[in-house]
């Protein structure tokens, strides 16, 4: 049976992951509105990643005999100044999420909950990838600068992203 404190913290993380999904969906809508379909596609794949994250936490609470309690999801921003601003926001957001995951690990350790600590290690590794993939686009956008040719090519590249669900492990 999962401890109350850990269960509450993971329930909060479900909300944070759902917010991330909502944020990236809002970014996808922004890119659709400025006709950058490839960027919109990248963000849509990111939405699916976040839903997987939320569901992993959801399943974990249930598996440990806890009760999932869903709460209101904040409204995300809807407007940015540029594609670069969107990806810089994304990178910062992922850094914040890494901080949340690290906080959960700290809690699991202080509560001597080894199962939860073990479960969270998947997210520790995942956050390295999440930060890195957002930062990679930031760097490419900086190289592309204001040149529309560069932006067009990057849009083509990001249009290739296909969401691949993680292999079935718990
Ligand atoms: Fe759920 Fe993007 O971390």
Secondary-structure content class: mainly alpha
Residues in helix, %: over 70%
CATH class: Mainly Alpha
How much of the sequence lies in strands comes to under 5%
Number of helices: 5
Write down the oligomeric state: single chain
Low-confidence stretches: none
> Which series of helices and strands comes N to C?
HHHHH
Rg over CA atoms: 17 Å
CATH topology: Ferritin
Main sheet attributes: strand count, strand direction, barrel closure: none
Average residue-wise pLDDT: 96
What is the CATH superfamily? Answer: Ferritin, core subunit, four-helix bundle
Number of DSSP-assigned strands: 0
User: What CATH architecture would you give?
Assistant: Up-down Bundle
Beginning-to-end CA distance, first to last residue: 17 Å
Shape: elongated
Bound heterogens, unique:
MU-OXO-diiron
Provide the fold topology.
Blueprint: H1 4-33, H2 37-63, H3 83-110, H4 114-144, H5 148-158
Helix pairs in contact: 1-2, 1-3, 2-5, 3-4, 4-5
Bound molecules: MU-OXO-diiron (FEO).
Provide structural commentary:
This protein has one domain (4-158): Ferritin, core subunit, four-helix bundle (Ferritin, Up-down Bundle). It contains 5 helices and no strands. It has helices spanning 4-33, 37-63, 83-110, 114-144, 148-158. The relative contact order is 0.16. Bound molecules: MU-OXO-diiron. MU-OXO-diiron binds at residues 17, 20, 50, 53, 94, 97, 130. MU-OXO-diiron binds next to α1, α2 and α3.
